[in-house]
Amino acid sequence: MIECMPKIYKLEPSKITPSKYISFFVLRDAGNLLFPCVSSSSTFESSWQEIHDHGGVSKQLLGDMHFATKHNDQLFEEFGALTCCSVEEEADVRRKVKNVKAFTFERHEVAPGVIAIPTPGHRPGAVSYLVDVGSSNVLFAGDSLWHDREKWMALSNKKNRPVMKNTLASLREESFATIFVNSSVQNPIYSIDFTNDAAKNEFLDGLAESL
Predict the structure, then answer these.
(1) Terminal Cα-to-Cα distance of the chain (whole angstroms)
(2) Up-side HSE of residue 65: CA atoms within 13 Å toward CB?
(3) Model confidence over 52-98: pLDDT tens digits?
(4) Can you give the C-alpha Rg of the chain in angstroms?
(5) Helix (H, G, I), strand (E, B) or coil at 127
(6) Is 96 helix (H, G, I), strand (E, B) or coil?
(7) Count of CB atoms within 10 A of residue 49's CB?
(8) 146 CB contacts (<8 Å, ≥6 apart)?
């Protein structure tokens, strides 16, 4: 586990290849959170003991079905943490994961200090999570937002660009200081910080203009 900022850790998979991605572990008094992104051939079991040492995991929070693998059930067996996703993604998630808890596809609190925000455009039922971490609000955007080693972007096809633009506009109404994305393990850029809401909104507007 690699500490990214106080109480937030990056988890790297056991096999480092271009097709593998990072996960995030968040320490919270109300229950630790896991934002997993593992593949069928590589997980982060080497970090399990450290996770236990920090109090385990209360929930696995998925942005969309792209994060669903058999390892989510292995994590449930190890930590008792259900895999959580929106009802819009539930059917696809259940094709790979048995222990699933789906929640309504609307902005609401899914746990104390954790707000699920619908962010469709990359996937129809994608959500991002606004998490109160210490004195800062952090947005975990999964793979709806992305960095390709050269620039930041919003991942959307031509058909869904209007939906993604609406998503980016809605995020302007949220207040957060940092965005984390489940980036490629070989990409050193997986987060971005903002000094204030104006800087955050300028960033989001830039993503919308590039679509």
Answers:
(1) 34
(2) 13
(3) 999 999 999 999 999 899 999 999 999 999 999 999 999 999 999 99
(4) 16
(5) strand
(6) coil
(7) 9
(8) 152, 153, 154, 155, 181, 183
